[in-house]
Amino acid sequence: MPTPFSERISEYTSRIADKLEEALPESGVTPRRLHEAMRYSVLNGGKRIRPLLVYATGECLRLDAVDLDAPAMAIELIHAFSLVHDDLPSMDNDDLRRGHPTVHRKFDEATAILAADALQPLAFQVLAAAPGISPDKLIHLVQSIAKACGSLGMTGGQSIDLSSEGRVLTESELEQMYELKTGALIEASVMSVSCLADDLPADRRAALLRFSRNIGMAFQIRDDILDVEGETDVIGKQAGADQRLAKATYPSLFGVKAARQRCETLLQAGMQELEIFGDDAEPLRWLARYIVERGS
After folding, report:
1. What does each C-alpha distance from 245 to 109, 163, 166 come to in angstroms?
2. Beta-carbon contacts of residue 43 (< 8 Å; ≥ 6 apart)
3. Whether 108 contacts 51, CB under 8 Å
4. Cα 138 to the center of its chain, rounded Å
5. 291/193 Cα distance (integer angstroms)
6. Collapsing DSSP states into helix, strand and coil, what is residue 19?
7. What's the whole-model pTM score?
């Protein structure tokens, strides 16, 4: 019997931690304070959900882990960049991230901005230097990840989020925001791997896309629920922050019960998309359940 994916989590999280450690500039290299802030923002904890999705999708498509390191690193670096910016006083003005002071509190606001700004190009530097990936595949990989973090992806979603504070959104408007703000990078975590697969049939690629979109939406709704029900020392960030900022969230607009039901519906829809892969998709099934059930 193959080892369950849950028993390989520590192996993959250690792997990505080592790879990120190698990719980040040493804190003793000038400019030291900037490099210290970059390392703090990336290496200071985190569940590594997005790299795990990369490796789980790779297992589903029977790819070697060595070919997945570059997209896993790049996506986690972009995720870290987004968190630093999200926490800034001009954005969500948070003091706590992953159970530690946010970067602008640990250092200062200007250093936090520069650290985040440096993490994004580092992500693409990592991709450009990826060994063993053909130029054609690399182009598709870069395009996939770049789109996910731009104005038609994560950054655009954050813009919509900020402009929606204090407003009542329809369900479709809210989910459109979630698709960009959170779903785009979750989608890239899965679909970047499809860029590396040889001759992946169109129906399987489409199934992965639908799976990633369902799980990306569920991920953000689950975050909304944890903001309402979670405890600060457990979730690693200030509970109740969404209410403080009058953010449009699923629980605030439709109630916690409806949010849970929507999460379950999205989970089941995502699971159904994985049926085409049979037992090979077990790592993705495990992660999908974890995303929807974490903190419960």
Report:
1. 20, 11, 8
2. 17, 20, 21, 24
3. no
4. 20
5. 19
6. helix
7. 0.94
